[in-house]
Amino acid sequence: MEALTLLKQQIADARHEFQGVMQDVDQTMAHWQPPGVANPIDDLLIHTVLGQDRQVSRLTGKPAVFEDWAAKLNLAADWRQTPETSRNLDASIEVLMQYADAVYSAVDAYLAGLNDADLEKPVDAFGSQVSVASQISRNLVVHIYEHTGEISTIKGLQGAKGYATRT
User: Fold this and answer.
1) Global pTM?
2) In this predicted model, what pLDDT tens digit does every residue of 59-71 receive, in sequence order?
3) Neighbours of 77 (CB within 10 A)
């Protein structure tokens, strides 16, 4: 199997799990404030999707999808996740999910334009050089799974089923 094919499949699988966990999340569940310093589901959703959006923007040099969505999400154009912003989101879960779909389309368009040789190109990753493949794997696969687990746990704390594909 070629590396690009594998990455695309891994991204599709991660997205499927993420969407499955999110499928029954309503506004109340999304904004429920977990105990301690854990973030609410709506914040984890925007963080996960915005991470993908900003990563593809960095890799392509094109504006992030977020630039067209910030106002719809009731967020500042320069929004950053902080402990305060995490607990004070005022975005509709439906609009957040629509933004996610727009980002998924941008990710898919980016991936469609790549070939295996592109995956070897070096890119800056917070001061060190890594391959495009490594950046994609970290931010479009691993990062999604990390937050899918968090969201599943926070749903469980509310008495809801976490992973959609698990019993």
Assistant:
1) 0.93
2) 999 999 999 999 9
3) 11
Residue 165 inside a domain? The answer is no
Q: 5-32 pLDDT, tens per residue?
A: 999 999 999 999 999 999 999 999 999 9
Residue 125 CA neighbour count, 13 Å, CB half? 16
The domain containing residue 57 runs over which residues?
A: 3-157
128 three-state secondary structure: strand
| Percent composition of the chain: helix, strand, coil (DSSP 3-state, to 5) | 65, 5, 30
Alpha helices in 24-131 (DSSP H): 27-31, 41-60, 66-69, 83-87, 93-112
Q: How many CA atoms lie within 13 A of 106 on its CB side?
A: 27
For residue 46, give the CATH number of its domain: 1.20.120.450
Amino acid at 105: S
Q: How far apart are CA 15 and CA 23, in angstroms?
A: 12
Total tally of structural domains belonging to the chain: 1
